[in-house]
């Protein structure tokens, strides 16, 4: 699995919408997620895990990942776009309303093909 984009809102330490675009690292075989203690590194992995499986990597439930810093009217949302099995792009979304009611949990959908991408073919490097 190759991460393409992670978008989170009111999740973990992140009250506002944050977008991590992993395409910046294309052409590199390896990249590192780093930062000081408490910066939100584990939260990024929790968000990816929550989008894929509906639960986090730690002891907190998905509902427990709602940011304490978020405005009460802001829904908790996670959207994870990744590449799997060569050219297929998938998106998994999960969200919890500000009141704690699940709207969508780990919904998967195929995304439109990128320019230059052919179905069932390897992505251009």
Task: Write structural notes for this entry.
The protein is mostly beta strands and 125 residues long. It has 1 helix and 5 strands; from the N terminus they run E-E-H-E-E-E. It has one domain: P-loop containing nucleotide triphosphate hydrolases (Rossmann fold, 3-Layer(aba) Sandwich). It has a 5-stranded antiparallel sheet, with helices on one face. Mean pLDDT is 75; it is low at 102-108 and 111-125.
Residue stretches low in confidence (pLDDT < 50, at least 5 long) are 102-108, 111-125
Q: Report helical residue fraction.
A: 10-25%
Largest sheet: 5 strands, antiparallel
Total number of strands: 5
CATH superfamily: P-loop containing nucleotide triphosphate hydrolases
Question: What proportion of the residues form beta strands (DSSP E)?
Answer: 25-35%
CATH fold title? Rossmann fold
Strand line-up across the major sheet: 2-1-3-4-5
Summed up, the domain count is 1
Please tell me the CATH architecture by its name. 3-Layer(aba) Sandwich
Spatial separation of the terminal alpha carbons: 15 Å
- Give the CATH level 1 class: Alpha Beta
Oligomer: single chain
Instruction: Give the averaged pLDDT, no decimals.
Output: 75
């Amino acid at each position: 699995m190759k991460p393409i984009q992670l978008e989170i809102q009111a999740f973990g330490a992140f009250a506002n919408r944050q977008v991590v675009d992993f395409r910046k690292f294309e052409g590199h075989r390896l990249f590192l997620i780093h930062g000081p203690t408490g910066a939100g590194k584990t939260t990024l992995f929790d968000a990816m895990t929550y989008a894929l499986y509906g639960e986090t990597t730690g002891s907190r439930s998905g509902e427990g990942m709602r940011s304490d810093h978020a405005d009460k009217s802001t829904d908790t949302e996670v959207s994870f776009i990744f590449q799997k099995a060569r050219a297929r792009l998938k998106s998994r979304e999960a969200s919890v309303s500000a009141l704690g009611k699940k709207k969508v949990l780990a919904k998967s959908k195929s995304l439109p093909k990128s320019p230059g991408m052919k179905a069932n073919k390897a992505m251009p490097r």
